[in-house]
Amino acid sequence: MRVEGIPASPGYAEGPLFDLDQPPASYKAKASAEEEQTALVSAIGKAVGRLAALVETADGDAAGILEFHIAMLEDDALSGPALAAIGSGQPADAAWRAVLDSEIAGYEASDQDYFRARAADLRDIRDQVLRALSEDNEAAAPPGAILYGEDIAPTRFLETDWSEGGGIALMRGSTASHVAMLARSRGVPMVVGLGDEAETLTGVALLDAERGAIVFSPSPAEIEAFRQSASSFADRLGAAKTFLTEPAVTKAGTAVRVQVNIAYPSDVDGIEIESCDGVGLMRTEFLFGKTLPDEETQYRAYRKVLEWAGGKPVTIRTVDAGGDKPVPGFTVEETNPFLGLRGIRLSLKRRDIFRVQIRALLRAAIHGNLKVMFPMIATPEEYSQAAALFAEEEAALAAQGVAHELPPLGIMVEVPSVALAPEDFADVAFFSIGSNDLTQYVMAAARDNAAVAHLNTVRHPAVLRLIAAIAAFGRERGIPVSLCGDAGGDPAAIPALLEAGLRDLSVAPAQLAMAKAAIADVRV
């Protein structure tokens, strides 16, 4: 039986199904409320210790996720109500589960996929403590297994040995989840949104995460066809690696710049600068985690990436908080955050926080080839106000005798108003197309909603027409235009993007080779 889903990380896996939804061992109640409270505090401590041990061996993305989990476990907002419930007579496991289940239900009820995706993190936190309470040692999946269930916890992903293959098949899940991000960066095949048909199935399965499907109890013919597709994918992946250290050029000899997208300064540690043309997008919202980062913290982060780039351009986006990226103490709760106070709108509203980032960027600019772009720009006035703040802070640093430099200032093209009237932004230094949001706003279809996934494609004529218009406007006015959304690293989308006139793409580091290989196969 073949069940269709949504591809979250491309690849193929053939192996036994491993049930992610096995219940934990039962908890043994204690003799008094005091002992129950002590047991919960101890279990939370054990869970924090387990996560802290994982942090020691984790890379940038994984470490950030784990630190987020630790911060939540140490937050009294979760443990306080549970301890109070224990004082009222509940056992530790029931009290903890009730508090976390209530939080999870709130996230799952959101109409925004980002918040629904974060429910997986809360379930992970819940189950980490429940396992510690019951002293349950989680069964490890056999090598090469396909892990399937409702969803998967980030810690489960990080503790799994993927060296012998395997994959992830989820009845729910999200392409925006932390695990999906980790799977893409590590090349682990993953499909989400399979629905309830997978609920009671066991045995060997075939996971096609390139197209987004899983085959249960496959026939010999299905196995043979699957292996041919998997072999073809592996061949393409292997062949693509030969392009990694070479400049990207089309069949017609047209040069294309290929840069990388990063989220953490440590992301560059695993990237050879020779393999890319610089950083097309450095997200800064991940620096805004448990606490708002001070000027020095930000300065060091930006300087590290600029020095790594060795003179190649590094485009840093000012904090794109809000929407799908809430930041404690900065963002506000909204009924429709994607259309609310996010990106540059929030930065201009909270200028005290924005000015700290501006000063850090101005100081870091002397260490490399920095470009700064503003997210979620919708009107020329927003750009003018943001640029004016840079001018003010530059003057202040000059008066103080602090070394600095004013970098070129550009904007994201992700709001249709910019794509439809680029002439209103002719004074910006550059455009960077955010294909994820542009497509979502043009098509009115969330890319992580399985029911409308067929609508959310950058290759829709309406989206491509806007991209082509921006590229043409940039050529006419001499304004550089790049694209830094997920479409830039999608081999299936790259031909259409180049035909639309783009010559500068920025992709996830794991997509570099395949993107360059796809470019080499285009006749433009």
From TrEMBL:
Its EC number is 2.7.3.9. Residues 241-522 form the PEP-utilising enzyme C-terminal domain. Keywords: Cytoplasm, Kinase, Magnesium, Metal-binding, Phosphotransferase system, Sugar transport, Transferase, Transport. It comes from Mesorhizobium argentiipisi. InterPro entries: PEP-util_enz_mobile_dom, PEP-utilizing_PTS_enzyme, PEP_util_C, Phosphohistidine_dom_sf, PTS_EI, PTS_EI-like, PTS_EIN, PtsI_HPr-bd_sf. It is found in: Cytoplasm. Its cofactor is Mg(2+). This is Phosphoenolpyruvate-protein phosphotransferase.
